[in-house]
Automatic annotation (TrEMBL):
GO molecular function: FAD binding; monooxygenase activity
InterPro entries associated with the record: FAD-bd, FAD-dep_Monooxygenase_BioMet, FAD/NAD-bd_sf
PANTHER family: MONOOXYGENASE (PTHR13789), PUTATIVE (AFU_ORTHOLOGUE AFUA_6G14510)-RELATED (PTHR13789:SF309)
Keyword Oxidoreductase among record annotations: yes
Keyword Oxidoreductase belongs to the record: yes
Superkingdom per UniProt: Bacteria
Keyword annotations: Monooxygenase, Oxidoreductase
Protein name, UniProt field: FAD-dependent monooxygenase
Location of the FAD-binding domain: 21-54, 98-366
A Pfam family it matches: FAD_binding_3
Amino acid sequence: MRKDFQSESTNDTFIKEANGSVVVVGASLSGLMTGIALSRAGLNVTILERAGAKPRSGAVLQVDSGEIDQTKTAKFLRKIASGGIRSAEAWSSIQFRLRTEAEADPKITLYYDTRVQCVNQDDNSAWVVTDKGETFHGDILIGADGHRSIVRRYVASHKPSATFAGYLIWVAIVDENDIPEKHRPSLIAPKLSMPDGIGDFLLGSIIAGADGSNALGNRRLGWAWYDNTQNDLLRRLGCVDGNVVRHSLNASDIPEQTLIELAEQAAVRWPQPWLDATLHSIKTRNLTGTPIAEYVPDNLVKGRIAIVGDAAHLPTPLTASGFNASLQDAAALAECVAKGIQGNSAAEALLEYESIRLKNARQIVQSGQSFSRSFGR
């Protein structure tokens, strides 16, 4: 349902008067950034999200490559997403800041628990139909609905699905005070580490606590364990069907024997503090197994409809490029549509966006494929 906008947006005088409308499918990071950027470009924005309004958790992201930002919109999105901190961040912290900004913008309407069933367009508009029979129209329609994108099935019907890369990543975030004090990293410890594994590896990040504190004992440890030994399990549980990723492996569905084996493997693989962090996550079932999918786009646009973020390009997380690419998608799209989207201008603006972003989108995915082909099996 629509939110009441009580707080003032931090948008500045760059915002233009509304001169068109857009429907954005998806309210994860990419969808929120796209909605904010398009509002600043002068559009009335409707964002549809299939999940509920309850805050969600996620992994750790790098958001600090601000030197690539060339436009006011890109710099603005970076400032909102990062909170002015140039470091690794919890997904939930980034999403909270973006959502707060979107909810404070009077030109953005957010609908949760709204599952899109199909998309379509004609010469005058583009629209979606939800599972409840609701129809939402816009001058343009943007798919920011992730690696299982409904919108991509329309835009790239010849290549609708991302493909399984051959491995999963176990991810979790642990409060620092949940591990023994003697193993907590010092304040001068590296914020990012990669302990050696035996055929697999782990990325560990020290991030601020949920309250933003970086004081010793108040921080969090985020870890991501790259594991190429669980493919049979993923297929048996329906997480992967053939070559297509269907869903993640939630903690409650992880077999007890798998958890026992992970704990045994961690004991001989990871040094402190990552050993205690992984063992605590395993013991409390505070972890998720995410099968990795990849998608190299051939096109980003079809008429009045376009795709951004993971719906448009899906690289292995090892490239650490997904968030930055999504931000650049949103900023480039805003620059293109700011010139106007009336009549034929809508399709022309989206084609300009595609010409700016397609080559880069393909390259970021391809840059990680050599790793996936050697590591995944």
